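B., you asked whether I could sanity-check this one before it goes into the benchmark set. Here's the sequence:
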Amino acid sequence: MIVRLLALLVLPIIAYYFVKEVNQRFNFTPRQTRLLFLIVAALLVIAVLIVLGRLPVGFILAPLGAAAAFVLRFLPTLLRLLPMWQIFKSRTASARPRQEGQTSTIRTEFLAMELEHDTGNMDGEVLKGKFSRKLLSSLQLDELLELYNECLADADSSQVLEAYIERIHPNWREQSNHDYGPAPAPDDSRMDHQLASEVLGLSDPIEKEDVIQAHRKLMQKLHPDRGGSDYLAKKINMAKDFLLNELE
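And here's what the prediction gave me:
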């Protein structure tokens, strides 16, 4: 009896680590992760109960057979209703009011940068180094340049900080006594659901229209032709492409 009880208690732990491994591979959303955990845990419990003889095999086969019969019978109707459902979802998403005060976040090794969608203003907190826990807006140009030297150790950090300095101090290279070359190229391969959501300032559940609107709004403020930077524009485009591909 105790062994059986311990087995049932261990099953959720097994389900947790299984879902954790799957999540690392496929980058599920938090909602999808929770749902997968519940499904895996429930299936494991049912499987053990069947093995122990506590549940008949028909407990699984009967619902599966009924579901298959239902799908086969109503499949033509479901296929006809699918386009109508997609139109309904699209109209519902379009009718939702836009979020005011929406912000995007770009986190790097040295910085946690925030971008305001409505104004295009940028600010950020320094995460490590001499100016740790200080806001960029509180630093003078000479301090920003000193921080920039520290950030050269990380390509993403130096690119983000360079975009900020260019926006606040357009002539910073001329004002500096040091000849700063171009910042090192960042690694453009890293993108996942959480990062893409933070870059576009979105939270789950995310609809296609949300992604398009957030991308358009950010590019209007941060496009290189409007005082933004190539790095930020590329990051925003990568986030949009990742989420749209994920939604398809």
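One thing to flag: The beta strands are 103-107, 111-116, 122-126. Otherwise nothing jumped out at me.
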